[in-house]
Every structure is written in structure tokens, then in C-alpha cells.
Amino acid sequence: MSTSALRAGRIREVWDAAWDRGDVDAFDDLLGPDYRRIGSSGDAQGRAAFKDSIVATRAAFPSLVTTIDDIVEDGDRVAIRWHSTGVHQNSFLGVPATRREVTVSGATFARFADDVIVEEHVTWDPRALLAALGIISIGQDQ
């Protein structure tokens, strides 16, 4: 099996374990100890903070399912296009439960060193989540 297929398979397994089942420690074998996750706004998280954010997200959206739509690899770089769907059952970032089903999508651009991810850049639109929760409206004539 090619390195590319092995990496894609590992990514899918770990994402399923962490995002869909809440086993965030599955990331320990995929993310390096000095891992950095950089968001669209430039904020950075280490591995522990990233895992904590998944736990918090899953607490608010216990039915969360994250689907990897595409994985494209080029050398030590991997692009992952994904979408997540879940029902807002508990408070999230101070927003009381709305009981609404939401879907958000984004892309993660990872850099490997040897067999672990050392850095990711993640892009998604948090306004889409807020709009799906009914907190704001976007893209509509008012």
C-alpha cells in the first residue's frame, strides 16, 4: 500500500474516532507532540487545546458526524475537505441549545514530518454555524 493511501486511511480512522465517537486520544498517534493548529483568524492551538475543543463541540452537538469528502496529498502536505452535521443539544460558546440540525464545512491543510502531522491550517466559516443556529442571518436581502 502506498504512503498516500496509508496516510489517508490513518486520517479517516482518527477523525472518525475523535470527531464521531469522542475518542480524542486517537489523535495522539497522528499529531506530533509540538503540533500546531492554526485557524482562519490566525489563532493557534496545540494538541491538548485542539482535543479540548473537540470535546466541547461534541458536548454541544452529541450527534456530531464529520465526513471527510476528499483527501489530496502532495509530498508532505495533505488537504482534507470535510463537512460536519449535528443537532445543537447543549450550550455552545454561550449559545443556549437551539435543537437545530446544522451542517458546516471546511478544509484542513496538514503538513507531515515523518509519520505525524506537525501543523494544520484550518479554514471554515463560523458565520455559517451561527446562521444555522439562528443567531445571525447572512447572504439574505433584508
Commentary on this structure:
With 142 residues, the chain is an alpha+beta fold. It has a single domain (3-133), classed as Nuclear Transport Factor 2, Chain: A (Roll). Helix content is 28%, strand content 37%. It is built from three helices and six strands; from the N terminus they run αββαββββα. It has helices at residues 3-21, 47-60, 126-132, and strands at residues 31-38, 44-45, 65-74, 77-87, 101-113, 116-124. A six-stranded mixed beta sheet has the order 2-1-6-5-4-3. The mean pLDDT is 91. One of its GO terms (biological process) is polyketide metabolic process.
Relative helix content: 25-40%
State which percent range the strand residues make up: 35-45%
Shape: globular
**Second rung of CATH, namely the architecture:** Roll
In sequence order, what are the helices and strands, one letter per element?
A: HEEHEEEEH
Number of strands: 6
Major beta sheet summary: 6 strands, mixed
pLDDT averaged residue by residue: 91
Unreliable spans are none
Q: Reading side by side through the largest sheet, how are the strands ordered?
A: 2-1-6-5-4-3
- The total number of structural domains is 1
Q: Structural class of the helices, strands and pairings?
A: alpha+beta
This entry's quaternary arrangement is single chain
The CATH topology is what?
Answer: Nuclear Transport Factor 2, Chain: A
Terminal Cα separation, in Å?
Answer: 54 Å
CATH class: Alpha Beta
Taking all Cα atoms into account, the compactness measure Rg is 16 Å
Summed up, the helix count is 3
